[in-house]
């Protein structure tokens, strides 16, 4: 109790780790060059859903692979050269698309998401931002009966974990979302889901609460990490050096390079890049909850900034130039579904979601580096899993009983001392 902890990263996961540790009496300093909620945590669709337990590398991926590799799927794009450079990660990712791995991953993610949802609800109340949350679930939309049948495996998986859903016909869908165009034959209403009207603002609200509790935030970059008198010294770009008993690396997609440069660790991380664009809906057009067009691979979510259109996955290098074709295709498809209106003045957004080969995050102490803790690799569901990650990491650090099984998330899966 009272030990010094430096948390690197102020996204949802980093701020959640900091909050969980501060609530247990640790002295916490968060370092991030962009500030809270400004990077990957800013750009998602704001959905907190138990349906996110489905990883991209599931057993049905093998049958879908030939079509995906043609690069024509609206929800999936990839850069061949980038994949060639990351072939080891790609092969490992595919090797986990097996039934046993799938069951282990879905079981682990379901526990983490359920716990995160409970913590989110408590924290939103405590941080004074419960009004940003909607508890109306979200919708999977199907343009054809064949498309609905193709989603049977996903629905069976959700049912196996007791996720509350309801199948809707076109008339029932219209009752829930009357402004959608009548192009969808079926829908799945995932009731075990909440959403927020600004993911970035929620992270910033959590960060303000952290400061009220006595935590510190430094808007700068950690440039050097080295052992120091039984702990660690963290040098920053603004010329400061902080001593810490523990350091938490929660840098999202930047974690891979940081761990390689500072500790010589090779982290098998790929990047699921995604885009978003905002629209001011036409008069009378609105959504009551986020919707996912399964055929066109986009999500539309009502946000404080207007309607947010988010794309599916683009596998590419983290810092590769923007490729707006996927976002443009998503906009064309979304205009068939809803009167989007005009684009807002907000620039298009691009973010990289960090993915480990088994689609599970790493949560725990770094092998061979006592006092360095890892909270990274949350792929595209860090928003749904951040608070549970923070609680688990704090419990492991302080030797408390854990709310969920930590073994599926242990760093030793891919890192050796």
From TrEMBL:
The keyword Oxidoreductase applies. Residues 5-396 form the FAD dependent oxidoreductase domain. Pfam families: DAO (PF01266). One of its GO terms (molecular function) is oxidoreductase activity. Keywords: Oxidoreductase. It comes from the Bacteria. One of its GO terms (cellular component) is cytoplasm. This is FAD-binding oxidoreductase.
């Amino acid at each position: 109790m009272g030990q010094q902890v430096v948390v690197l990263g102020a996204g949802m996961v980093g701020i959640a780790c900091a909050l969980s540790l501060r609530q247990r009496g640790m002295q916490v300093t968060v370092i991030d060059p962009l500030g809270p909620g400004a990077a990957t945590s800013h750009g998602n669709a704001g959905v907190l859903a138990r349906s996110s337990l489905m990883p991209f590398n599931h057993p049905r991926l093998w049958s879908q692979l030939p079509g995906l590799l043609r690069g024509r799927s609206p929800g999936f794009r990839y850069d061949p050269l980038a994949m060639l450079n990351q072939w080891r990660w790609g092969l490992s990712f595919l090797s986990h698309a097996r039934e046993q791995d799938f069951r282990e991953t879905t079981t682990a993610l379901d526990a983490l998401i359920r716990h995160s949802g409970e913590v989110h609800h408590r924290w939103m109340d405590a941080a004074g931002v419960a009004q940003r949350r909607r508890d109306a679930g979200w919708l999977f939309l199907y343009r054809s009966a064949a498309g609905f049948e193709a989603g049977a495996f996903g629905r069976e998986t959700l049912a196996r974990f007791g996720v509350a859903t309801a199948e809707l016909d076109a008339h029932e869908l219209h009752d829930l979302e009357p402004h959608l165009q009548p192009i969808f034959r079926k829908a799945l209403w995932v009731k075990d889901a909440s959403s927020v009207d600004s993911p970035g603002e929620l992270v910033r609200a959590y960060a303000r609460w952290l400061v009220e509790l006595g935590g510190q935030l430094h808007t700068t970059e950690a440039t050097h990490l080295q052992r120091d008198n039984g702990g660690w010294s963290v040098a920053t770009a603004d010329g400061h050096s902080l001593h810490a008993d523990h350091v938490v690396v929660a840098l999202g997609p930047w974690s891979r390079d940081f761990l390689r440069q500072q500790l010589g660790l090779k982290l098998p991380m790929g990047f699921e890049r995604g885009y978003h664009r905002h629209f001011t809906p036409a008069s009378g057009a609105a959504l009551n909850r986020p919707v996912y067009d399964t055929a066109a691979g986009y999500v539309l979510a009502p946000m404080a900034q207007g309607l947010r259109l988010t794309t599916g996955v683009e596998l590419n290098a983290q810092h590769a130039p923007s490729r707006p074709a996927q976002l443009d295709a998503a906009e064309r498809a979304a205009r068939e579904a809803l009167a989007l209106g005009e684009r807002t003045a907000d620039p298009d957004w691009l973010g990289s979601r960090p993915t480990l080969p088994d689609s599970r995050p790493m949560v725990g102490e770094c092998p061979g580096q006592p006092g360095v803790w890892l909270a990274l690799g949350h792929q595209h569901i860090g928003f749904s899993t951040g608070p549970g990650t923070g609680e688990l990491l704090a419990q492991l650090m302080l030797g408390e009983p854990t709310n969920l099984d930590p073994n599926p998330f242990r760093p030793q899966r891919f890192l050796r001392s």
